[in-house]
């Protein structure tokens, strides 16, 4: 359970930061398109190639208050290398989903930005397109044991994954918006991105997300929840 703590804090901050903006982001209005998008998320497989997923749970009431219609929070571990990443994939109205990036909201959990966020382009072989991400390194260095996280994030309106300068304006005309975080804990702040397994994981994850966009919500098997211990968090913590 201790190995999940930094990731849990990260997920907590992503969701809780959105609550303060709930009044102006249509949080009480859920269209059929949003309901359909939320249902699709449940079909993301727990097993992605050699990566085995473990389901994490967030506080349901506060997820709703944050304007999140549906989410997937999981820790995936690669069977051979034992590399691990945590993902948070959310969907909802563009208002609440377009705001809050980790370099801003994680500061309330004691993390500081190390360097500037940078762009990362990842080709998707299955669709011959390119997914855009931003990534940043954050650290909590004032703790007895320093914690470092590298986070990739991007948005999609059921199309390409993009990181516009102003997501709230860029996606305002869409009915539904998805946001994806891929989070990895580092042992030090000088680990080069070339050695990070997150891009390799994304190459497996993104084609599966394309399938979710193209598959009718009522078709296909539902993913089965992991039998690993469910982690429930208080979003007011931290």
H-E string: HHEEHEEHHEEEHEH
Order of adjacent strands in the largest pleated sheet: 1-2-3-4-8-7-6-5
Number of helices: 7
What is the total domain count? 1
Percent in helix: 25-40%
Report the principal-axis shape.
Answer: globular
End-to-end Cα distance: 17 Å
Keywords:
238 residues; single chain; disordered C terminus; 8 strands; alpha+beta
Structural account:
- By secondary structure, this protein is an alpha+beta fold.
- It has one domain.
- Helix content is 25%, strand content 29%.
- It contains seven helices and eight strands.
- The chain has an eight-stranded antiparallel sheet, sandwiched between helices.
- A hairpin with a 4-residue loop joins β5 (112-124) and β6.
- The longest helix is centred in the C-terminal third of the chain and has 17 residues, at 198-214.
- The radius of gyration is 17 Å and the shape is globular.
- Residues 18-29 and 217-238 have low confidence and may be disordered.
What's this model, at a glance?
The chain is of the alpha+beta class. Helix content is 25%, strand content 29%. The chain has one domain.
How is the topology of this model organized?
Elements: H1 5-19, H2 32-41, E1 47-48, E2 51-55, H3 60-65, E3 70-78, E4 84-92, H4 94-97, H5 102-105, E5 112-124, E6 129-140, E7 147-156, H6 167-170, E8 177-186, H7 198-214
């Amino acid at each position: 359970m201790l190995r999940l703590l930094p990731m849990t804090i990260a997920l907590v901050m992503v969701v809780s930061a959105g609550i303060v903006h709930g009044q102006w982001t249509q949080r009480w209005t859920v269209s059929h398109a949003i309901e359909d998008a939320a249902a699709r998320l449940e079909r993301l497989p727990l097993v992605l190639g050699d990566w085995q997923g473990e389901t994490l749970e967030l506080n349901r009431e506060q997820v709703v208050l944050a304007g999140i219609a549906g989410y997937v929070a999981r820790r995936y571990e690669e069977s051979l290398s034992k590399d691990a990443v945590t993902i948070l994939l959310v969907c909802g109205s563009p208002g609440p989903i377009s705001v809050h990036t980790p370099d801003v909201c994680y500061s309330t959990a004691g993390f500081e930005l190390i360097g500037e966020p940078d762009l990362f382009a990842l080709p998707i072989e299955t669709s011959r397109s390119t997914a855009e991400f931003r990534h940043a390194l954050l650290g909590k260095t004032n703790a007895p044991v320093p914690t470092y996280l590298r986070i990739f994030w991007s948005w999609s309106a059921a199309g390409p994954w993009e990181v516009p300068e102003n997501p709230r304006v860029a996606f305002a005309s869409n009915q539904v918006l998805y946001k994806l975080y891929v989070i990895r804990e580092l042992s030090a702040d000088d680990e080069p991105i070339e050695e990070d397994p997150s891009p390799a994981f994304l190459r497996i994850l993104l084609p599966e997300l394309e399938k979710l966009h193209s598959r009718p919500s009522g078709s296909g098997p539902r993913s089965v929840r992991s039998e690993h211990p469910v982690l429930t968090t208080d979003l007011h913590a931290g």
